[in-house]
Amino acid sequence: MTQKYTILFDLDGTLVDTAPDLMNAHNHVMKKYGYPTKSTNEIRNLVGQGAGALIGRSIWGQAKKEFHSVEDKKIKDQMSKDFVNFYGKNIINESTLINGVKEFLKWCKGQNISMAVCTNKQEHLAIDLLKKIEIYEYFEYVAGSNTFDYCKPDPRHLTSVIEILGGDLKKSLMIGDSETDANAAKQAFLPVILLENGYTEKNTDEIYHNHLIKDFIGIETIVSKYL
Length: 227
What we know:
Layout: E1 6-9, E2 16-17, H1 19-33, H2 40-44, H3 51-60, H4 70-89, E3 96-97, H5 101-110, E4 114-118, H6 123-132, E5 141-143, H7 156-164, E6 172-176, H8 179-187, E7 192-195, E8 211-213, H9 219-224
Parallel strand pairs: 1-4, 1-6, 4-5, 6-7, 7-8
Antiparallel strand pairs: 2-3
Helix pairs in contact: 1-4, 3-4
């Protein structure tokens, strides 16, 4: 039997434009704690590494995994919890599918392609979003930031999912929108299809990729070359 092909998808900024709802959750928390709010475009440059990193980068300009004070960590942890709680209750108020996503997922199903989501959003939030935006049924597995002991850009976030699906690294690719996705895929030796105008501060020419797309319209032509 011929080995099925596997496609791994990022979620935020790749499958779904979640920036408006992420902005609302972010600004809710910032107002509560007395910090400046951000615009939707600014939020697109901050997301991709999880809630804690979003809060840290918004306040301190970096994720600050190593804090100069215990108070910094307490503030970030509490704000992150408040962010996740608010966001979870308002996860699909303004979020929309990226153009052409559902049509491409249907095409992949018809091609017998295995599909999974690898996101740095918490697993339960990712599953909830996928269900509410009505594309959860297309995926065989959803790996969030807390599914394993590691997450993107660690390549094991991708390779572990491929292994779980019974896939083959040589018959897999990653579709994402940021350097976090691209770096994980590069280290896993996977081809990368990168969306323009992703949730990242970097220009597309600074990010590793094999193909660049505006949205999912016509992406079947690219993917067919790998099957």
